[in-house]
Q: What sequence folds into this?
């Protein structure tokens, strides 16, 4: 039943939300290449773990069989620690805002203010719809309004009134809340070529009421909103996808380097020039249609395949389990039985002394004092996915410095009965990841990030 519901939802969404109109973009532009930004100071590994755990707990609460018209579009971005930002210019004349790029959510939303005299607001902190000539609130009977959650006390929709606007509201696990008007607006994106792409009628949430730590505290890291890149019909990737090949990709570079190299979000066929992409099918979880699920089959340590029951990686009838690729989670999380096998195998093969004291939250730490290149002797992990795709990240993607001369295994356990395994953004660093939504597949390549 659930697969049928999900198919119908996806099919109907093609008609409920037409693709955004593109203006001021050359026909030679096959894709948009947008710089991804990081903001310092970065959280410590222990802080990152706490924020990741909170995020995954929140995301796990969303797996419920909910009818299509009440489909949740709650963002998990605010509960994450590994945020990458996109500079989005919205309105005419454009107002610049930093949004968290998040593959774990669908909704695009920004902080808004209805002020007329806005001198008490700092520039580039909120969107002022009154200052834009192209701001257009969605009507409550507009089909797109059916795709967002409504306040408990939403006004009754009056089909005859022009100003019966579409209200939305959604909350977080800690009680944080954002609500406002669902609207359409012209947005402008700065691309790496220096040209500006202007996109008309992008649907987004204009949040006038924002409260709580998840959307205004330190975990939100000064963001002005969220750019949802999930699989739902109102995500940024879905709205622009059909104009640009219905795919997007990104390269997340090591932000601890100085100076940090630039990471990119690419909307469209930017990864087509990569000589060798390894592909694995994207799976559908009817109870979590937003997330990008893949099937992890095997884990290897120094070439030795670990004995892990294949059922550990399956999605059960309640929507639990499985493996998600997520840009908003920093660390990697493995189903608890698999995690035990991995940490035991790594511990047996590590050739460095175990640290005298563990960094809080981490189960395996080593002392790298006097070792020039510890990555040369740390155990090597390899992940095999469905379809034969093999992912071999370097040790720096899963061993991180938590204290001076101490490195810890940046993999955590998760209960598969209430959660799912996660390939976080640290594990993804240095690889091009391509989300091909038309072919329902995920591609990755170590070489892709070397593209100009």
A:
């Amino acid at each position: 039943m659930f697969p049928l519901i999900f198919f119908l939802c996806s099919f109907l969404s093609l008609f409920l939300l037409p693709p955004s109109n593109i203006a001021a973009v050359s026909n030679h532009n096959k894709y948009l290449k947008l710089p991804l930004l990081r903001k310092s100071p970065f959280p410590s590994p222990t802080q990152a773990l706490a924020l990741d755990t909170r995020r995954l707990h929140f995301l796990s609460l969303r797996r419920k069989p909910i009818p299509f018209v009440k489909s949740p579009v709650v963002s998990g971005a605010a509960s994450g620690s590994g945020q990458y930002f996109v500079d989005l210019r919205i309105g005419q004349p454009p107002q610049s805002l930093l949004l968290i790029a998040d593959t774990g959510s669908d909704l695009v939303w920004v902080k808004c203010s209805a002020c007329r005299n806005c001198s008490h607001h700092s520039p580039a902190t909120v969107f002022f719809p009154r200052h834009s000539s192209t701001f257009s609130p969605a009507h409550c009977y507009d089909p797109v309004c059916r795709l967002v959650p409504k306040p408990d006390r939403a006004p009754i929709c009056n089909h005859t009134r022009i100003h019966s606007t579409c209200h939305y509201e959604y909350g977080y696990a800690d009680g944080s809340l954002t609500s406002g008007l669902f609207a359409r607006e012209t947005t402008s994106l700065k691309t790496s070529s220096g040209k500006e792409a202007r996109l008309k009628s992008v649907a987004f949430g204009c949040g006038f009421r924002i409260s709580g730590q998840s959307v205004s505290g330190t975990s939100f890291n000064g963001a002005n909103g969220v750019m949802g890149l999930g699989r739902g019909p109102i995500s940024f990737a879905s709205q622009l996808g059909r104009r640009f090949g219905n795919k997007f990709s990104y390269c997340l570079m090591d932000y601890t380097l100085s100076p940090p190299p630039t990471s990119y979000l690419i909307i469209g066929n930017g990864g087509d020039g990569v000589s060798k992409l390894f592909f694995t099918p994207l799976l559908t979880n009817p109870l979590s249609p937003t997330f990008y699920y893949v099937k992890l089959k095997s884990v290897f340590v120094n070439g030795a395949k670990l004995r892990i029951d294949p059922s550990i990686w399956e999605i059960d009838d309640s929507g639990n389990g499985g493996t998600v690729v997520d840009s908003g989670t920093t660390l990697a999380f493995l189903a608890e039985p698999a995690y035990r096998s991995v940490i035991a195998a790594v511990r047996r093969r590590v050739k460095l002394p175990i640290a005298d004291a563990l960094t809080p939250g981490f189960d395996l730490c080593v002392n790298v004092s006097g070792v020039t290149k510890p990555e040369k002797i740390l155990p090597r992990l390899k992940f095999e996915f469905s379809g034969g795709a093999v992912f071999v990240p370097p040790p720096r993607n899963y061993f991180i410095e938590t204290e001076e001369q101490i490195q810890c295994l940046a993999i955590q356990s998760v209960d598969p009965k209430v959660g799912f395994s996660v390939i976080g953004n640290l594990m993804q660093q240095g690889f091009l990841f391509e989300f091909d939504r038309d072919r329902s597949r995920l591609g990755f390549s170590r070489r892709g990030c070397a593209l100009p």
Remarks:
- The chain has two domains: 2-268, 278-450.
- Residues 1-16, 22-29, 63-82 have pLDDT under 50 and may be disordered.
- The longest strand covers residues 196-211.
- Helices lie at 2-16, 45-60, 213-216, 236-241, 336-349, 425-428.
